[in-house]
Specification:
The protein is of the alpha/beta class and 297 residues long. The protein has 2 domains: 161 residues, 3-Layer(aba) Sandwich (Rossmann fold); 105 residues, 2-Layer Sandwich (GMP Synthetase, Chain A, domain 3). 33% of the residues lie in helices and 22% in strands. Strand 5, helix 3 and strand 6 form a beta-alpha-beta unit. The strands form 2 sheets. A 6-stranded mixed sheet has the order 2-3-1-4-5-6, sandwiched between helices. Strands 7-8-9 form a 3-stranded mixed sheet. The protein is globular. Bound molecules: guanosine-5'-triphosphate.
Length: 297
């Protein structure tokens, strides 16, 4: 599988960690040049460890996007924080993200990364006036022995090439872990479920998106016809089911249309998407559901 790998080849795991909404998923997508991890304006969008692989002739960086660091309030949160702990433990190097518009050196949850090797990445620098940029970076310089402080913008692409070069140089020498043309390790149906969840976060408010789980019940590729996808949306309460379906089924219809568009864009082909809503009381606190929905090994 790995012919012609030069001795100078470098490879390793780089985990993106930080508080909710700092821009972890957006940064990983921008570094990969492809949308793998869903992004919304709402905190706690990411629930899983999401792997994205960046390969070149001389390197392979395996990024892991993680849920934001939070204080757990229910079982799902505990499972999310376990994913963060695993991603920190498994990494050769951490990217610890701080939001340039909101954070200060005192507001970061640095205790979670203990003494692991890390770079501090300042995100959203496009929103900072130019004259404030340098003084802002200086406030973080020397903090906790971070190897470097790298100001970035995932929107303009500012400094992303510098960040990639720095990562390539810092990873240990070794062969690739995955074939060079592989971009992730999750099956297609995982991404389809995530894209539906992204639209739920977009269209519904308050508790509803946070109580929601999306499972792909059937995914059938059909020659000469659209792929068939049957997805169930699980909620914790009957009232949430009513909100998702809406008057005369209008809300679910609108959601289905929006999700179908993003899925088709992602897959590059037409699909037939069928959605239905189920109530599973308190699934976020029940271990058997957390396991079967893929939050626990
Ligand atoms: N202007 C600007 N906005 C950004 C940038 N990076 C991320 N954002 C926005 O910040 C919000 C949160 O981004 P995400 O990538 O979902 O943040 P996250 O850290 O993965 O969030 P969680 O999943 O909650 O942990 C979204 O509205 C993004 O569009 C950036 O470089 N510039």
């Amino acid at each position: 599988m790995f012919d012609d790998i030069p001795d100078s080849h470098r490879s390793g795991y780089v985990s993106l960690v930080g508080k909710p909404n700092v821009g972890k998923s957006t940064l990983m997508n921008a570094l990969l040049g492809q949308k793998l991890s869903i992004v919304t304006r709402k905190p706690q969008t990411t629930r899983h460890r999401i792997v994205g692989i960046h390969s070149g002739p001389e390197h392979q960086i395996i990024f892991q996007d993680t849920p934001g660091i939070i204080k757990p309030e229910y079982g799902l949160h505990n499972a999310m924080m376990d994913q963060v702990t695993t991603a920190i433990r498994d990494a050769d190097l951490l990217l610890f993200l701080a939001d340039a518009t909101r954070d200060t050196p005192d507001t970061l949850s640095l205790e979670h990364i203990e003494d692991r090797p890390a770079l501090l990445v300042l995100t959203k620098m496009d929103l900072i006036p130019q004259e404030q940029a340098l003084p802002l970076v200086e406030t973080y310089t020397g903090l906790r022995g971070f190897e470097e402080v790298v100001p970035t913008s995932s929107v303009t692409g500012f400094n992303l090439d510098v960040l990639l070069d720095t990562l390539r140089d810092m990873l240990p020498q070794g062969p690739p872990f995955y074939p060079k043309d592989q971009i992730s390790e999750h099956p297609q149906r995982f991404f389809v479920a995530e894209l539906i969840r992204e639209q739920i976060l977009e269209y519904f408010h308050e508790e509803v998106p946070y109580s929601t789980q999306v499972n792909i019940v059937e995914y059938t590729e059909r020659d000469g016809s659209k792929d068939f996808i049957d997805a169930e949306i699980v909620v914790t309460r009957k009232s949430h089911k009513g909100i998702l379906i809406g008057k005369g089924g209008q809300a679910l219809k609108r959601l289905g249309k929006a999700a179908r568009h993003t899925i088709e864009e992602f897959l590059g082909k037409s699909v037939y998407l069928q959605l239905h809503v189920k109530v599973r009381k308190d699934w976020r606190n029940r271990e058997q559901f957390l396991r079967s929905y893929g939050y626990r090994e």
